[in-house]
């Protein structure tokens, strides 16, 4: 019943907070109350008796004194809320009963002027409690009800009072009704303003906690959600996601398209079962809070299915795209420390998932506490390059039919780096690019690798980034280096990614055509990772496409991927290109892609990249 009167969302805790706030405001109200108290005392002394007026003053001051005492009890947070509510209720009921009684005494005792003054004071109390206390429903109720009853008694007695002349009775009733109407209007306005303020405050709070594009939590409110969950002591998982190919996609198709992708990812995260809160942490980064499944196996399965759900093809206005995602996750109990530490751990695991290209990684305190900052890499990299510690590794690429080595891919390595673990190429290559040392890195590793081509028929595949391509001295320097080692450009494959088509397309195409004219072969690396693959085949002067390992991973489970693979291979052949596949980790995958007509295979099953210390020895499948 109380809930019905006070409202369904009424809580004891909120009432106490409002109550304390009111108590603070009442101190400001003190002067007004003092003047009202003395006015009433003077009226009582004039129309009733001095003793009654004195009693009134004593009672009011007693009430104010108990208020001070009771307030202290109310602020005592060691007491349970119910025990703190009692002094609060005692104080407000005492106060309002006192004022209402005295107004009734005045009404009954005094002449016409006293009656009107008493009525005005009483209605004043009503306005006061309805507006001033409008935040506290309980206080409005406790002070308002006696005052309302008092007003009703006054109106009833004014209309029947035999000592009043007809004129006075009319004046008293009109005055009381006018004041009551004013009161009703005041209450109405007060309530309306309060409701508006509340809904505005709720809206502002919601907006402040929301990411405007996706409607998910923003970073700050996600921290709060995780914190609230951590306090409840329930077991939970925090995962951090970063979309793999969002930025180039956004550059290529524009922001409206990017927004569609982000909104779709947000929708998938939010609607995934088991997700308690999802947030956009900025750009293309998301985080989720999930209830922890009962055991490790179930948790791993759950996180992997969440990843698959986000990474599944996205259908939007521009077509169907595969954006891909890397995800790191952590069980809250694996981290000791504040919530920020838990979220940071999930972020660190996500970065590892990205560099190791494993899609999903659970935070591992041993591995991940050795995460290397890019500033540390920047300091160490140039020194390592200058002192010959940046090494070339070669990975074989074989013919799909006869399994003989046709080519080697040159991959960079940083062994004996001095860090707790050796940084992966995807960690230090962006650093080399920032430092403007990418070309220097290539010349260093090429010098190590070129001698291994002597006496073989292998080609050498080198990875070239768009920034290298556009530098005017790149091709002449490359040719000069090859000449020094007696290797013709016809034995070199330049591996470029779709990134070359995102900026300066015409310029990049011109450089690639020039390279081709010099005899180099051009390979489109990481094909099938997404957003514009088929268009590339037409745009770029290509000799070969290399299907990405992400593509291969889906091959066994998805009939759709198999169809795309078949179509891509036959399209490449029709356009006069060869087709190779990377990431072959099992004989089974090798068999499938060979059956689909792929020409060349690369992957751990064929041979792992091996650092060149001297001449490479590939025992397994060497020609
Ligand atoms: P990429 O050119 O696509 O190279 C293939 C990557 O896949 C290599 O990773 C290789 O070690 C890995 N890989 C090969 N077979 C398998 C497999 O069966 N399973 C799995 N899981 N992975 C396999 P790595 O060496 O870490 O290089 C990553 C990327 O870094 C390369 O991708 C390339 O884009 C870039 N990169 C590597 N070396 C160089 C370099 O010398 N110069 C430039 N510009 N980029 C380089
Ligand atoms: Mg490559
Ligand atoms: Mg690749």
Written description of the protein model:
With 623 residues, the chain is of the alpha/beta class. It has 3 domains: 2-208, no CATH class; 219-368, Alpha-Beta Plaits; 396-412 and 459-611, TIM Barrel (Alpha-Beta Barrel), CATH 3.20.20.450. 58% of the residues lie in helices and 14% in strands. The chain is built from 24 helices and 16 strands. The protein has helices spanning 2-6, 12-28, 30-47, 50-75, 81-109, 112-132, 137-160, 166-208, 219-231, 246-253, 255-271, 296-311, 339-356, 365-368, 374-386, 425-434, 438-449, 466-469, 474-484, 505-517, 533-539, 549-553, 559-574, 587-595; strands spanning 236-243, 275-282, 285-291, 314-316, 319-321, 325-331, 360-362, 391-399, 405-413, 459-463, 492-496, 521-527, 544-547, 578-581, 600-602, 610-611. The strands form 3 sheets. The protein has an 8-stranded mixed barrel, surrounded by 4 helices. α24 (587-595) links the parallel β14 and β15 (600-602). α7 (137-160) runs antiparallel to α8 (166-208). It is elongated and about 130 Å long. Residues 615-623 have low confidence and may be disordered. The structure holds ligand C2E and magnesium ion (2 copies). Ligand C2E binds next to β9, α16 and β12.
């Amino acid at each position: 019943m109380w809930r019905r009167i006070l409202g369904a969302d009424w809580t004891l805790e909120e009432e106490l907070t409002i109550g304390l706030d009111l108590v603070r405001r009442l101190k400001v109200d003190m002067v007004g109350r003092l003047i009202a108290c003395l006015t009433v005392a003077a009226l009582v002394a004039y129309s009733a008796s001095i003793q009654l007026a004195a009693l009134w003053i004593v009672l009011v001051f007693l009430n104010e004194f108990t208020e001070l005492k009771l307030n202290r009890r109310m602020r005592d947070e060691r007491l349970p809320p119910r025990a703190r509510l009692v002094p609060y209720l005692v104080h407000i009921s005492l106060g309002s009963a006192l004022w209402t009684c005295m107004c009734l005494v005045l009404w009954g005792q005094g002449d016409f002027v006293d009656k009107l003054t008493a009525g005005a004071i009483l209605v004043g109390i009503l306005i006061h409690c309805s507006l001033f206390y409008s935040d506290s429903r309980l206080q409005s109720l406790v002070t308002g009800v006696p005052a309302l009853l008092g007003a009703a008694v006054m109106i009833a007695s004014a209309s029947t009072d035999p000592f009043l002349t007809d004129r006075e009775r009319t004046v008293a009733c009109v005055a009381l009704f006018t004041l009551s109407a004013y009161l009703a209007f005041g209450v109405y306005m007060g309530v309306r303003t309060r409701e508006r303020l509340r809904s505005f405050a709720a809206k502002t709070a919601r907006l402040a906690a929301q990411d405007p594009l996706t409607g998910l939590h923003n970073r700050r409110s996600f921290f709060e959600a995780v914190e609230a969950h951590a306090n409840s002591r329930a077991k939970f998982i925090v995962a951090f996601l970063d979309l793999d190919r969002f930025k180039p996609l956004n550059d290529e198709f524009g922001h409206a398209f990017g927004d569609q992708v982000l909104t779709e990812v947000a929708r998938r995260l939010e609607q995934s079962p088991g997700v308690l809160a999802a947030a956009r942490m900025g750009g293309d980064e998301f985080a989720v809070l999930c209830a922890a499944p009962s055991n490790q196996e179930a948790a791993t399965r759950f996180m992997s299915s969440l990843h698959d759900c986000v990474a599944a093809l996205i259908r939007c206005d521009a077509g169907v795209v595969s954006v891909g995602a890397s995800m790191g996750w952590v069980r809250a109990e694996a981290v000791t420390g504040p919530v920020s530490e838990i979220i940071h751990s999930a972020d660190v695991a996500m970065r590892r998932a990205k560099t190791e290209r494993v899609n999903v990684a659970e935070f591992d305190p041993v591995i991940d506490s050795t995460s290397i900052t890019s500033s540390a890499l920047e300091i160490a990299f140039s020194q390592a390059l200058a002192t010959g510690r940046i090494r070339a590794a070669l990975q074989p690429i074989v013919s799909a039919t006869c399994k003989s080595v046709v080519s080697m891919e040159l991959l960079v390595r940083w062994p004996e780096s001095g860090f707790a673990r050796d940084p992966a190429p995807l960690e230090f290559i962006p650093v080399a690019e920032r430092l403007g040392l990418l070309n220097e890195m290539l010349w260093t590793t090429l010098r190590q690798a070129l001698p291994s081509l002597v006496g073989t028929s292998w080609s050498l595949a080198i990875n070239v980034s768009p920034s290298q391509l556009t530098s005017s001295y790149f091709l002449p320097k490359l040719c000069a280096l090859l000449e020094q080692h007696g290797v013709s450009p016809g034995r070199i494959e330049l591996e470029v990614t779709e990134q070359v088509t995102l900026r300066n397309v015409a310029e990049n195409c011109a450089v690639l055509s020039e390279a081709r004219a010099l005899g180099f072969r051009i390979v489109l690396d990481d094909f099938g990772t997404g957003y514009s693959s088929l268009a590339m085949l037409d745009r770029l002067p290509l000799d070969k496409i290399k299907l990405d390992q992400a593509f291969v991973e889906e091959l066994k489970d998805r009939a759709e991927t198999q169809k795309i693979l078949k179509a891509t291979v036959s399209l490449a052949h029709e356009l006069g290109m060869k087709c190779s596949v990377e990431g072959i980790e099992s004989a089974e995958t090798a068999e499938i892609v060979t059956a689909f007509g792929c020409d060349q295979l690369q992957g751990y099953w064929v041979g792992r990249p091996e650092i060149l210390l001297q001449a490479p020895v590939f025992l397994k499948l060497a020609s």
